[in-house]
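Can anyone check this?
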Amino acid sequence: MFSSLEKHPRNTKQHKMWSWFGVLLLLCGLCSARPPIVDGPKDPPIIDPADLKKENGSEEWNKAIEYTRYLQEVVQVLESDTDFRKKLETVDVEKIRDGSIADELDFVNHKVRSKLDDIKRQELERLRHLAMKQFEHDNGIDREHIKMPGHLEVGGDTFEKEDLKKLILSTTRDLEEADKNRRGEFKRYEMEKRHERESRLKEMQDEGARKVQEDEYRQMKEKHKKHEKPHHPMTKDQLEEIWEDKDRMRPEDFDPKTFFAFHDLNGDGVWDQDEVKMLFEKELDKVYNKDAPEDDMMERAEEMERMREHVFKESDTDRNNLISFEEFLSETKRDEFDNDPGWDTLDEEDPFTDEEFRAYEMQRQREIIDYTPRPDNKQQHDEAVQPNLQHPVDPVEPRRGGIPGQAAFKPDEGYLRGGGASAHHEEADEPSQP
């Protein structure tokens, strides 16, 4: 089939014309080198990859056309159709060049068309893998460290008990990780607020203006604290307030089953996390007003998430991140349901300790230094790496503040040693002194 390619001259002029006539020579070769295939009981085999080099007669052909195997397989299958092959032997060369020979595909037998479908699917799969590799290369993705799906059993295509088990465990793990990350982000948000406030005050040259700014902050903080104490979530007082004000029902008619149905918004028989959070809107309105400058809506969102975490910890006994009517009914029968201690809001606690804030400031300063061009003078560099903190570091000072249950802020490794990331690597490169 490809004998005409092997006889192709190697002089420079003809070599330059290779890209123009290569495909033409290939297709014209259909009419010459290979004897007709006799129909038999067995289907003609797809070409073996090991024979590609023999068939092509040149490695340069493989380099010029990346879909060589696809082309080879299509041609071989088409040649297996006797009528199509006869047409190729007598067809005008121009019909090959302009592609109109493809119209004859309508007349090949069904078995040949099925084989061509299979070949195309294989080629599409190959192209999909190439596209994935290109995407990974362009985005710096390390394929060996890609997270494999853990929420289902990849070994089968039917839903089994193991699939349900993995789905539940993965959902629980991922939601817990999301809550952990959210608490960390909120803590950094609060530390950034304090840092920016203290930085503005420090930059003020006018002592009087600085005092006015400090007084305004204290007044806003005190004004925010002057709010009604919210009910503890999932107590009778909290739910009956919703029953009366939102559901427009009489307090003496409070019924757990009816209340549960009212707030099962999608009617699936359980409360999901969003439906539970909707129960806290009235309590949060007592503390946060979006039109009041002293109220921070980021804190309101965090307050809602803390309430949601508390309710699911207490009520979701089977840990499926849903609250069934049975679980809700059990809550209404507990002693705590009739005894509302109130809810301690964020403004009653410090979201971080002073030690955590100093560590945050130090890491922030080191990050700035790491991305700042270094001076040539070694002495200036030594002076530059000293952190410019708002507060001196006193490791013996006792901790205060911090929300219970939240992990302490931990700066990146190396920052508290006074070096920063780049300085830490430099230390490792310096030879030890005798």
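Reply from J.R.: I decoded it. The beta strands are 270-271, 323-324.
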